[in-house]
Amino acid sequence: MADSGLLLKRGSCRSTWLRARKARPQLILSRRPRRRLGTLRWCGRRRLRRRLLQAQAAGVDWREGARQVSRAAAAGRPKTATPSPIPSPTPASEPESEFESASSCRRPLLIPPVRPVGPGRALLLLPVEQGFTFSGICRVTCLYGQVQVFGFTISQGQPARDVFSVYTHSCLSIHALHYSLPEKSKKELKREARNLLKSHLNLDDRRWSMQNFSLQCSIVLLEHLETASVNFITSYPGSSYIFVQESPTPQIKPEYLALRSVGIRREKKRKGLQLTESTLSALEELVNVSCEEVDGCPVILVCGSQDVGKSTFNRYLINQLLNSLPCVDYLECDLGQTVFLVETGFRHVGPPFTHLRTPQKMVYYGKPSCKNNYENYIDIIKYVFSAYKRESPLIINTMGWVSDQGLLLLIDLIRLLSPSHVVQFRCDHSKYMPDLTPQYVDDMDGLYTKSKTKMRNRRFRLAAFADALEFADEEKESPVEFTGHKLIGVYTDFTYRITPRNRESHNKILRDLTILSYLSQLQPPMPKPLSPLHSLTPYQVPFNAVALRITHSDVAPTHILYAVNASWVGLCKIQDDVRGYTNGPILLAQTPICDCLGFGICRGIDMEKRLYHILTPVPPEELRTVNCLLVGAIAIPHCVLKCQRGIEGTVPYVTTDYNFKIPGASEKIGAREPEEAHKEKLYRRPKFCRKMK
């Protein structure tokens, strides 16, 4: 039986080799690679035969193919073999220029090569239509050619861009794009490339670039990125893994060491962002509509269930639009973000917490859900939407609650905001959601609006909302009419790491990172060292200068200060004048709908001097207009309170002896935080005069 098995193995190898030799008799292998051919599987032999034929057609020496066989057989992993070279043009097709003919006779680049060009710097050569997927943070400069990162195009001559490919989101990729070449000779093209590289690279690096340079190739410089925000976030335990992941097995490859000095790591292509055909089609259509401006600036509303890629699509679309337009407006209506805002578009080459900006108009809601308070949700959206000037395209993000009353609320939003395009997301794991066609929206009743069939006039106008929206005078004369929208369906097929079981913890991590990124604005600019939060001087706010309101639950007036102390507060501006009160604290009976100018931490309350101690990065000129403090269900990250450096003895606001049986002591009250399984617990100090040192 052993001999028969050996004969069968030899027979299959010889038959495979004979078929390859009959197809191309001029292909010859030495005896050693021919023996190792037998260790490959049938798929590996098939792949090898195809590569040998392509190499022979490209005019490559057969020894190159033999060495590939030896490496693949020795490693025992034919899947990691070098990709097949691209065949050169046939003799019938003449090259476009002398430079193309010179580069076609040389073997093209198979894998984007990386070369270290100094401490914390690496050079990347990207052939056209090839990508480089990575994780980590770096500064990207396009020295020659044109590349695209997360939909944003970076061309030669543009300033460097900070790119954040973090662990909480899909890895980013740098893709080389086609760019127009002037009609120049080979010497002129090389001279132009050398002049562009001269100010960034030394002589040896420029020579290496020219030796490996090919037609339509892009040269990218990757540099180490260090900011005060990143240093502040990584200074807390458990947050350093967000930006860079260490390899489980140490490597000594030159490419790995070069990328590690930059602060990034090469990842597999499947870990990067994969866009479906319907997503690319929707992006192309929306970009064309926004750039044409035939019927005015489009209003694009994006809807769908949870975890289908709405926020990723919005950021990618904003980057695509900013390649052609000067600005884009964005309206965030997802309560998972805890705020409503209208802001001018900014290039998002990374997750939201890495690109915080001051919005044009913002309202602090303070709760991650609008259940049992739908009317207030609608009123806030109307208030924020009134700031839209209709001078640029508007992208609207909605909540992932699309069932039962959430669907009816979404219908109200479509009628209220009157979008020109509705992008509806769906995937295999998402809940059923009917197609929100214009006819479906017209025939369905919302929570607060009626269908067209129940209205006298079929051209239903927004008369009920015109006064609340506070349109401009010229817009009041011609009220907005529901003329219908265009529905664009998008199917996504992402690999999800978020499940219903870990969704809440994942959202909490993102909220904590956003708060830490916001607090990093208190840090001095680089290269000064970080300053602990308890060492910073807070602002002193008198009791009678601001009003107080707890938004997420009813609190007895005698316990208001307990809830405000050591809390995350919204710094707001209300229209009412609160300066007439002498003592304070001033308590509001209802939650106002007002502008939010920023956020801060109430790090202490002085009962003797009747002062709030507020720590915030909001500028002093804007703080003078703040007259209201709103406290919601968003808590300060535990790491801020537990990891206070330089404190000896008892850490303020932290205790190991906490009794959850006391009424009101449970963290579940007000849906603040899930109870954690650790010994150290956070609490509110009953003595307001004791502040953080």
From TrEMBL:
Residues 123-245 form the NOL9 N-terminal domain. Residues 69-99 are annotated as: Disordered. Residues 535-637 form the NOL9 C-terminal domain. It is found in: Nucleus, Nucleolus. Its EC number is 2.7.1.78. It comes from the Eukaryota. One of its GO terms (molecular function) is ATP-dependent polydeoxyribonucleotide 5'-hydroxyl-kinase activity. Interacts with PELP1, WDR18 and SENP3. Interacts with LAS1L to form an ITS2 pre-rRNA endonuclease-kinase complex. This is Polynucleotide 5'-hydroxyl-kinase NOL9. It comes from Rhinopithecus roxellana.
